[in-house]
Amino acid sequence: MFLGMKRSKYFIPLYTTPFELLGYLRHYSDVKGSTAERSCAVHEMKTGVMTNIAEAQLIALDWGTTSARAYLMGADGHIVAERSAALGIMQVASKAQAETQSLDEAFKATLTELCGDWLDNFENVPVIACGMVGSQQGWTEAAYRPVPANLADPAFELASVEIAPGRTMQIIPGVLDLKELPDVMRGEETQILGAIDLAALNADDSEEQLFLLPGTHSKWVKVSGRTITEFCTSMTGETFALLSTQSILSKLIEPAPSANWSAFERGVKVSQSGEGAADLMLTAFSARTLVLTERLEKNEVSNYLSGLMIGAEICSVLGKQATNDALSLTICGNKELSSRYTRALNIFGIDQVRELQGTAPRGIWAVASAQGLLQTPSV
């Protein structure tokens, strides 16, 4: 059970449905082929209207392992336009190797592909990024900040990389929990700060909150005010993908036309049961044996396994006696997968659930504001 948990709130950005997740992770582990095969269209969505070029305040990037998202932000942090593409750091590294470029050249070219026109049109607007772009495998390393880490502290140092002559991009550092078994995060800390701001939570008192950011590697993060005090990581998403694609269980899985909630909830309940209390490693094989004994259909295996693993994750962190008396949850992330965690948490007796999406750009804005990077509008 996560240490010292009391009246906590949960924020949950989530990976998607089982088969969409498998496709995502197959791409994650198989970035190869020609440049044409790797290149992906940049998708743009306009979310606001900019009436004056001076209104542009920030170019924000959420740049991860397999994808990159860019946001053009106006006054008060509203998003004027956003773009996304499968141009994560893995694709950039692959491009650099294929085209015999330096990593720096490949990152500059990728940034231009993603938002070069914004950079040209708004020459004096600051550029700031979060995520794996600041890792050792990224553009330049942004050294981890140790816990306790105040997410909005103006004193913490951003990393910097030159993106054009005389112009730099700032990179938000990740967070390190240097306990007996160390833990790290990059990008999630910025999502948490954005979630706090978007939800208008009281971040000035000492009430403890617990944020959950599920995905390939789920993060459970304890926060006091706006300060991360400790966190842990669960490899739920990646383990699910491995079991579903490379284990003996993969031979049984048949696609289902839609989410099978009955099979999913069955898996969650098994994780709570006496048999499930033993260990996930001792129950995962039931996804095979239940099929062999004709008590589970092949097109139910993926959802059953998903429920089993999400339930095991919740059990490990919250303990088996979680009730809705002490918990209020906010879910941040993919709508479809949010429903999976909501259903699982409901089975655990946690009924008060709130959903938030798109917290990263708000977190980047909050950091830029705290660091004094934003222009002060003239009166």
Automatic annotation (TrEMBL):
UniProtKB keywords: Kinase, Transferase
Extract the GO molecular function terms from the UniProt entry: 2-dehydro-3-deoxygalactonokinase activity
Q: Which InterPro entries match?
A: DGOK, DGOK_C, DGOK_N
Q: Which GO terms describe its biological process?
A: D-galactonate catabolic process
Q: Does the keyword Transcription apply?
A: no
Keyword Mitochondrion present in the record's keywords: the answer is no
Query: Protein name, please?
Result: 2-dehydro-3-deoxygalactonokinase
Q: What is the lineage of its organism?
A: Bacteria, Bacillati, Actinomycetota, Actinomycetes, Micrococcales
